[in-house]
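User: Hi! I have a protein structure encoded as tokens and I'd like to know what sequence might fold into it. I'm fairly new to this, so please keep things simple.
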């Protein structure tokens, strides 16, 4: 009966939980553990991870939420991970853990300075309390490019021209507390446009008033209501100013 229960529990475990169960430690640093699942990972990735976390803490003025997630971040590179993400993806705040899952390509290109998605995912761990999904993704991309300028991040690869003017359905979401749209996981082109527009909007806000003002907006339960107070104009004008 116990064996049967164990088997049932294993079957019910999420894919990421199964990856975590299989993963082996490659290297451990002061605050980050690097693990591998069904793939060979260069231990030299660890210093890049730790440096990125340190840099983002300085940039944002925020530190890792040890009280919620503990003192150590686990980064797992898995052959089963196609799209890099944090634990539970877009639902991370419902069960906040310091867990990052990286695709092997991301880890490989990170070593060559071509991909900063690892920074993006670490940013989600650092700034996990968010109320606007576009601000969340935009900030993570912004920080990634501050740490590794010119690199590819997420669906926007290095050397690929950015999307043109964004569609109204995306521009209307920028800075709002509207949940992430369902098509983010089904439409690759809209996903790329969404992430690029979110980063450009966040960059514009930071250029206007600095990162500390932006972080106050980011941490507000209703960020769209604070846009006029913090930036002196409405959301539509800010979107237009950002070239979107």
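Assistant: Happy to help. Inverse folding works backwards from shape to sequence: for each of the 244 positions I chose a residue that suits the local structure. Here it is:
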């Amino acid at each position: 009966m116990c064996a049967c229960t164990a088997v049932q529990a294993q079957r019910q475990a999420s894919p990421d939980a199964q990856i975590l169960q299989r993963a082996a430690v490659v290297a451990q640093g002061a605050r980050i553990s690097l693990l591998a699942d069904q793939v060979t990972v260069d231990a030299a990735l660890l210093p890049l991870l730790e440096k990125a976390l340190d840099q983002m803490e300085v940039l944002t003025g925020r530190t890792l939420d040890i009280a919620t997630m503990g003192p150590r971040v686990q980064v797992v590179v898995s052959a089963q991970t196609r799209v890099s993400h944090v634990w539970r993806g877009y639902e991370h705040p419902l069960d906040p853990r310091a867990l990052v899952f990286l695709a092997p390509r991301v880890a490989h290109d990170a070593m060559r300075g071509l991909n900063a998605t690892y920074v993006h995912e670490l940013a989600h761990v650092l700034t996990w309390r968010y109320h606007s999904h576009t601000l969340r993704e935009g900030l993570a991309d912004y920080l990634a490019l501050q740490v590794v300028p010119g690199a590819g991040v997420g669906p926007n690869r290095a050397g690929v021209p950015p999307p043109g003017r964004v569609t109204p359905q995306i521009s209307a979401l920028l800075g709002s507390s509207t949940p992430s749209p369902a098509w983010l996981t089904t439409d690759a082109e809209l996903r790329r446009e969404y992430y690029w527009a979110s980063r450009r909007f966040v960059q514009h806000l930071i250029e206007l008033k600095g990162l500390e003002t932006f972080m106050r907006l980011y941490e507000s339960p209703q960020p769209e209501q604070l846009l006029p107070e913090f930036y002196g104009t409405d959301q539509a004008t800010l979107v237009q100013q950002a070239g979107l």
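A useful reference point when you look it over: Residues 1-128 form a domain with the Zincin-like fold (CATH 3.30.2010.30). Feel free to ask if any position seems puzzling.
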